[in-house]
Design brief:
Elements lengths: L6 E3 L8 H4 L1 H11 L7 E4 L1 H8 L6 H5 L8 E7 L10 E4 L3 H11 L1 H19 L17 H13 L7 H17 L1 H9 L8 E7 L10 E8 L6 E9 L5 H4 L16 H4 L1 H17 L4 E8 L2 E9 L4 H13 L5 H6 L7 H4 L2 E2 L7 E4 L1 E4 L2 E7 L2 H9 L4 E5 L7 H6 L2 E4 L7 H9 L3 E3 L5 E3 L4 E3 L5 E3 L3 E5 L4 E4 L4 E2 L5 H13 L3 E5 L3 H9 L5 E5 L9 H10 L3 H26 L4 E4 L13 H11 L3 H11 L11 H6 L2 H19 L7 E4 L5 H22 L6 E6 L2 H5 L1 H4 L5 E4 L1 H9 L7 H9 L16 H15 L4 E4 L7 H9 L4 E4 L4 H12 L1
Parallel strand pairs: 13-14, 14-15, 15-16, 23-24, 23-30, 24-25, 25-26, 26-27, 27-28, 28-29, 29-30
Antiparallel strand pairs: 1-2, 2-5, 3-4, 3-5, 6-7, 6-8, 8-9, 10-22, 11-21, 12-16, 13-20, 17-18, 18-19, 20-21
Helix pairs in contact: 3-8, 5-6, 6-7, 13-19, 19-34, 20-22, 21-22, 22-26, 23-24, 26-27, 33-34
The structure holds phosphoenolpyruvate (PEP) and magnesium ion.
Keywords: Kinase, Magnesium, Metal-binding, Pyruvate, Transferase
Cofactor: Mg(2+)
Family: Belongs to the PEP-utilizing enzyme family.
């Protein structure tokens, strides 16, 4: 028979493809090819559906030709990618008063009534567009309910309910075709990644009876658990039901496998049950995917209506992909591509149970993934006190500063009013794996009154329990159930496969031994950025640091630095030992000094006491150090050049630690990185002093070692002048946080306030601190890489800004010839998988 390609009866050889008829039509054809008992099906192409939406009438005779005259039909959507959704299925098309009478004879009045009612209701809502509420009062057990519903339909529409099956089918097709072109449907599918002009196919299928005499019913089955991916027969079956009733009426549904808790399909229809398992297994092997089978039982006989990809959590997605590869069904490379790298976050952090109700208080920027609950505290000191009592707490601040580090360590989660993806709270939170929501400016922060007011007027006070969901940016009331992080064998296996294929390195940004340990556990290939200044906030170091800042003479400063030296040395020894011979890239001191000083009068007084200085001296010094625009002021290498003793001390600490850590392990080759460079001369000056310190340490200790000195490219000028900087640097590492800030002239600490408006109005496609701006900042990366490599072909290139962990940035950096990316320890697995996907 010559087939019309737009109205195709599905046979093993019919011309059906996902791109012309949609994924469901193609999948049904595969099931037909496997010789499964699939009811007769006709597929309508995207083009045909478009014409129907435009008002054309399809060739109804051709469409209905394959079906038995007395058959009832159903129509289901078939978009190119099943995840894009589509209008809901309509069942029992073709039922009318005459067939109702026949069905009463064949199946009994109750079943026939239920079927007719289902269709009239669907038709009234989707085709006649009547209010769904009008059926709310219907009691299906009432013998007159059908008459009542038909009368209601006729009253509302002033028309008789159509009796001609061809008319019914045509109207259903029209309503489904038009629903697809509606604005809401389009926006919904675009949000799921569908292109604006995505097509819709429709499949018309003969209804396989599932109501009537003997064991009849419908259900779904899959062979894995959707949450965990473990192999387990899962699903539901409901006698005398249709469609997805078994899922909608879960409490009435039966188990599939024999179960002590109640009756099961296995007991009611053992043969059909065995077949169902066999078919679902066959689908897994031949369709190369874990499938859910939709089925009906007709007097003990099985029909397979459909197969859909099993819905799955990230955890299950990994298990399923690894098990398909281990069973030889798909190659390992393909298993790597089956898991969304971002979804891995769900495995690394606790999450709010997706099935739990959520009482959302407000939404901010999802700055660090994971969820945690705790009592509200408003200061770092209260957080520490709370931790000491063993009470989990959420640290709430307008924004965090380095002084809050200890409070952050003590807290279960952090919430700030201000800030964006690269604010202090966000960067530190991600580094620590601490759930964090920043920029929650829809909440009113009355910090002096220790109170928060939510957009809907609810007041929250210190001690109230809230939950921070750093994965989606929500602040929730109370304590919803959380699910644990789960990195099982399948996760480890997938990661090993990823490392075997990827061709760009992945390091971690780690500041403390604890970070380094996490980095190591996640198999980072070294540390790409150690922000040393964070070490100065630990324990009593802050006081020594402040003494150094307050020193009036070079001699006093030296004395303070001498006390800091052993502390830094000890930190570095620990880092080197944890990283066991892997590269560790240490950035010299970066922030402006005033960050280490107290900001209020009480703090000034305390400091005056600690340093035994008059209060006026302290206030004066703090004022002297304050800057109008500190992020563009005396920080980074500018401080290194003006107060060189700080870098001298750090270089010495690094070299002495190198000698110490190399004693009992592999030789350590430290990397030293100069921040915020904008001119070649800055590098020359620092390099000369660092070389001199190295020479001095070698002579004093009588031991040799090597090291690499590199430059952090964080200013546009450094990228543009990479050609003259590279001869003095073994590596260039692009700090895209500052580079984005400086390229846009956009404060990374303040942009959060208006970023959402900017994105909403389409000024920026995305927050550039979140998604690397490949056009602008990206061009600077390319220019820097090109000019640097031209001057020095063995130049090592990397990215260490927060973008380093995002799959798109990794793709960009790989294409630009970078050697590695460096990101927060908890993003290392995401980066490893994303990098692998680029290489397969
Ligand atoms: C950067 O600017 O990209 C960077 C990594 O440094 P920081 O975030 O510490 O400024
Ligand atoms: Mg920076």
């Amino acid at each position: 028979m010559q087939q019309d390609p737009d109205i195709t009866y599905i046979t093993p050889t019919a011309p059906v493809s996902p791109a012309t008829h949609g994924g469901r039509a193609k999948c049904l054809q595969r099931l037909v090819r496997l010789d499964l008992p699939v009811p007769k099906t006709v597929a309508l192409s995207f083009d045909e559906v478009k014409r129907i939406a435009a008002g054309e009438t399809p060739d109804m005779a051709a469409l209905m030709e394959p079906f038995d005259d007395a058959a009832l039909l159903c129509v289901r959507p078939s978009s190119e990618d099943p995840d894009w959704g589509g209008p809901g299925a309509v069942l029992n098309i073709g039922i009318n008063d005459a067939r109702f009478v026949d069905l009463c004879d064949q199946l009994g009045r109750e079943a026939a009534t239920a079927m007719y009612l289902r269709f009239v209701q669907a038709y009234a809502i989707h085709v006649a567009r009547l209010d769904p509420d009008m059926f709310d009062h219907i009691n299906q057990d009432d013998p007159d309910c059908l008459t009542e519903v038909l009368r209601a339909y006729e009253e509302e529409t002033e028309e008789e309910f159509p009796q001609d099956p061809a008319v019914q089918l045509l109207e259903v097709l029209r309503s489904m075709a038009r629903a697809w072109s509606g604005t809401t449907a389009r926006l919904l599918r675009q949000a799921k990644g569908a292109p604006a002009d995505a097509g819709l196919g429709l499949v018309v299928q003969e209804m396989a009876p599932s109501m009537g005499k003997g064991e009849c019913g419908s259900g779904v089955i899959q062979l894995v658990n959707s949450k965990t991916g473990e192999r387990k027969i899962t699903g539901r079956y409901l006698s005398q039901s249709q469609g997805r009733d078994a899922l909608a009426r879960r409490s009435a549904a039966l188990y599939l496998e024999r179960d002590p808790r109640g009756p099961s399909l296995q007991e009611l229809a053992p043969e059909a049950f065995e077949q169902l398992i066999e078919y679902t297994r066959l689908m897994r092997v031949r369709l190369r995917e874990e499938m859910q089978t939709e089925f009906t039982i007709e007097n003990g006989n099985l029909h397979v209506l459909d197969g859909v990809r099993v819905a799955r959590s990230a955890h299950a997605a990994i298990r399923i992909a690894v098990s398909l590869a281990n069973d030889g069904i798909i190659p390992r490379e393909e298993a790597l591509t089956r898991v969304d790298p971002r979804a891995i976050n769900e495995l690394l952090h606790r999450q709010v149970d997706p099935d739990a109700p959520r009482d959302v208080l407000a939404k901010g920027i999802a700055a660090s993934p994971g969820a945690a609950s705790g009592r509200i505290v408003f200061s770092a000191a209260e957080a520490q006190a709370s931790a000491a009592r063993g009470e989990p707490c959420v640290l709430v601040r307008r924004e965090t500063s380095p002084e809050d580090i200890r409070g952050m360590h003590a807290a279960a989660a952090v919430l700030t009013e201000r800030g964006g993806m690269t604010s202090h709270a966000a960067v530190i939170g991600r580094g620590m794996g601490l759930p964090c929501v920043v920029g929650a400016s829809s909440i009113k922060f009355h910090l002096r009154r220790k109170m928060l007011k939510t957009p809907d007027g609810r007041e929250l006070h210190a001690g109230d329990v809230i939950t921070i969901d750093g994965t989606n940016g929500e602040v929730l009331a109370g304590e919803p159930p959380l699910i644990k992080a789960a990195q099982d064998d399948a996760f480890q296996t997938l990661m090993t496969w990823a490392d075997e294929v990827r061709d760009i390195g992945v390091r971690a940004n780690a500041d403390t031994p604890a970070d380094a340990q996490v980095a190591r556990n996640f198999k980072a290939q070294g540390i790409g950025l150690c922000r040393t200044e964070h070490m100065f906030f630990e324990g009593d170091r802050l006081t020594v640091m402040r003494e150094m800042i307050f020193a009036d003479t070079a001699k006093d400063r030296e004395a303070a630095l001498e006390r800091l030296l052993p502390m830094q040395r000890a930190d570095f020894i620990e880092l080197f030992r944890i990283m066991q011979g892997q590269p560790v890239c240490i950035r010299l001191f970066d922030p402006p000094l005033h960050e280490f000083l107290p900001h209020d009068r009480a703090g000034h007084r305390e400091l005056a006491e600690a340093l035994d200085l008059p209060l006026s001296d302290v206030t004066r010094r703090v004022e002297q150090l304050s800057e109008y625009n500190p992020m563009l002021g005396m920080r980074g290498v500018r401080l290194g050049i003006t107060v060189p003793e700080i870098y001298d001390m750090q270089a010495r600490a690094i070299f002495e630690a190198t000698i110490e850590a190399s004693r009992d392990g592999d030789p350590v080759v430290p990397e030293i990185m100069i921040p915020l460079v904008s001119a070649k001369r800055e590098v020359e000056l620092v390099k000369t002093r660092v070389d001199a310190v190295a020479a001095a340490v070698r002579t004093e200790k009588g031991r040799d070692f090597t090291y690499r000195l590199g430059v952090m490219v964080e200013t546009p000028r450094a990228a543009l002048r990479a050609g003259e900087i590279a001869p003095h640097a073994a590596f260039l590492s692009f700090g895209t946080n500052d580079l984005t800030q400086m390229t846009y002239g956009l404060s990374r600490d303040d942009a959060g306030r208006f970023m959402s408006t900017y994105v909403q109005k389409g000024v920026f496609p995305e927050d550039p601190f979140h998604d690397l701006d490949t056009d602008g900042v990206g061009e600077l990366l390319q220019i820097g890489a090109e000019r640097g490599r031209k001057a020095r072909p063995d130049l090592v290139l990397s990215i260490c800004g927060e973008h380093g962990g995002s799959p798109e940035s990794i793709a960009f950096c790989r294409a630009a010839g970078f050697n590695y990316v460096s990101c927060s320890p908890f993003r290392v697995p995401v980066a490893r998988l994303a990098a692998a996907q680029l290489a397969v």
